[in-house]
Write a structure and sequence with these properties.
With 633 residues, the chain is of the alpha+beta class. It has 4 domains: 74 residues, Alpha-Beta Plaits, CATH 3.30.70; 334 residues, Peptidase S8/S53 domain (Rossmann fold, 3-Layer(aba) Sandwich); 132 residues, Galactose-binding domain-like (Jelly Rolls), CATH 2.60.120; 34 residues. 18% of the residues lie in helices and 24% in strands. It has 11 helices and 27 strands. The strands form 7 sheets. It has a 7-stranded parallel sheet. Strands 1, 2, 3, 4 and 5 form a 5-stranded antiparallel sheet that branches. This is Neuroendocrine convertase 2.
Length: 633
Amino acid sequence: MLGTFKYGTAAVLILFSALLLITGDAEEGIFTNHLLVQLHEGGDEEVHQLTVEYAFGSARKLPFGERLYHFYPRDAPKTRRKRSLRRHQRLEKDQRVKNVIVQEGFARQKRGYRDINGIDISMNDPLFTKQWYLINTGQADGTPGLDLNVAEAWKMGYTGKGVTIAIMDDGIDYLHPDLASNYNAEASYDFSSNDPYPYPRYTDDWFNSHGTRCAGEVSAVAHNNICGVGVAYNSKVAGIRMLDQPFMTDIIEASSISHMPQIIDIYSASWGPTDDGKTVDGPRELTLQAMADGVNKGRAGKGSIYVWASGDGGSYDDCNCDGYASSMWTISINSAINDGRTALYDESCSSTLASTFSNGRKRNPEAGVVSSVSVCRFHGPEMYLFAVVLFRNICPNLTWRDMQHLTVLTSKRNKLHDEVHQWRRNGVGLEFNHLFGYGVLDAGGMVKLARDWRTVPERFHCVAGSVQEAHKIQSSEKLSLVISTDACQGKDNFVRYLEHVQAVVTVNASRRGDLSINMTSPMGTKSILLSLRPRDSDAKVGFDKWPFMTTHTWGEDPRGTWLLEMGFRGEAPQSGVLKEWTVMLHGTQSAPYIDQVVRDYQSKLAMSKKEELEEELDEAVERSLKSLMRKGN
């Protein structure tokens, strides 16, 4: 499907069709004056004629489709409850036009912003010593050693040089003295105002400083006596302003995600559907298509890297209900505070890959994160970019999947802890947590492992099985179903070593927020696919072919019996109907990192007892993984 996948874009859109008809917080019937227009033939000249004839302000060709154009209104963005059909219908009847789609407005919300009341690295930036997440010596009552281990990467000479990170947000202050020399104007654009200058719109409350703060955390210049330093202080930063308008549209999201994919290496998204604990939402059709194009074609075919904040809904929400954070194509990152606890607004889900740091519970104002705005402030971060911005001058051929594997192998438990979710090991010995993923990102560990990295094998996809019969769910008992699979063994798309697993579920309930869903792999790893969401009272929509995703079975053998458990956890009696459960396996046929180990045991397999040697093979895989993780340390 992606990268070296055998499926094309059409298959991607079919697989994720659940995300095309989504319930969200955008008001029903809110339409915009922005149009998606497809021509039968022709190009810019025909488009210009159409904009003049039908009184549009301008039009822009979209890079992710054939003869697709974004038609802009003349005046400022407006919303309307009823479609003004006259101009739309006239344009649609024009012989030059194949299709016209009015863009619906929907809600997107910024994430990670929360106001709060012995290493030889020398920096003259005045706030550097307060940046505990870079080097934690116990400042601000934190836990010494609980940091991103960037000092080790910096000492080896890896500081982000040659990498461009795009901040998809409310704009960035590219004139700020701590950002100006690292600003990449060529890769920047303002999709809110349709111009190449993504400067933030001023507000008295600093609301539109979110993107600038993100940019500062990543690319703030070092050794300039201003504020602090970025985690990748020699990287280039691009601004993509796309959040500062009354509504979001599919065109704006897709255009942002697909902007300059051969220049931009990493796209940072610290936003998503409303984190209110009752929204189930995700990318629409154009955005899915743009993201698929990005991982297939971006970075000269190595794939664009999309990094997503997992969500700010706290214990009331579940980030598996966010189709951006739970996508296989994104690196979804959660956060912790400086003593290793979770921030109170953190969401948990089985799709989270790893964690970084934020502000949170502590009253000490220096327990926050330093960044660059017109004045230097502490705030809640998007401190999840450092790991992927350090690699162009280590291994220029790293793919988007390589980055996910490196994240899994080198992220560490360190001193992270949570009162609710305990640390566990999956079937091949990888330690994970439902809240923190595979642990806190480690720059030094990733750099060391990446230097000798070999690109992971080709990825394949297998439908493990599907339950299509209706099954009733009652408060008094738990519904348990099983799917037994050979993971397409003997076929071209056989999956032996897992990466992502999706449980595509269609279910309706008298109260959606009281549903809980768990899935257990053949190797005994239980993933919490859906937690209790007490604010979600939906009784109509439910989940329609929704792809719940887990990363917790990474590296496991998917052959055997998968168990789905579904029930209600609320106090009031509820009922529901499960209409579909399909297990989608995504992974490789040959073992990543450990091909020789597998070959050795396969040769023995022909001469000895199969079951005993398969156990021995799994143990060897686990030993190899541990060896790799020690190397990362």
